[in-house]
Design a protein that fits this description.
By secondary structure, this protein is α+β, with helices and mostly antiparallel strands. Helix content is about 40%, strand content about 20%. It contains six helices and five strands. It has a three-stranded antiparallel sheet. Helix 1 packs antiparallel against helix 2 and helix 2 packs across helix 3. The longest helix has 17 residues. The chain is globular.
Amino acid sequence: MNVEQAKALRAPFPKSAIGKMPKGGVQLDFVGHAATTDRLLAVDPEWSWEPVAYDPRGLPGIDEHGGLWIRLTVAGVTRLGYGDAGGKKGPNAIKEAIGDAIRNAAMRFGVALDLWAKEDIANTTPSVAHAERIAPSATDTETAARVVAWGE
């Protein structure tokens, strides 16, 4: 992953892509599965996900909570994510758990990270611009990506 891809993943979403979800008496901002997928496709048309575990039939392994762990790969970098369907059952619950897992794993790449945070992370985490300044060279994209990903 290069610095430009990392920037694109972390770019703020337009207000039209941000939904509201009631939780605990408040309305939380969120970005849905379609907008997340669109962002991943824009950055890496070949992104992919795979379950961490499989059931005996070869299908994604669903745990006792109705959730699953996945590996999300974007621009050659793989990160874990977990998703569940909030206690729902049936085929739509599986799709919801997969979508939740993709959004959760995408957050680890910075996708909609500002919406997941309870605090103002713009003022508490190293910026991508900061990562570019401390990256060793423009040709060392692997190191630059680690800088962006881990705030080194």
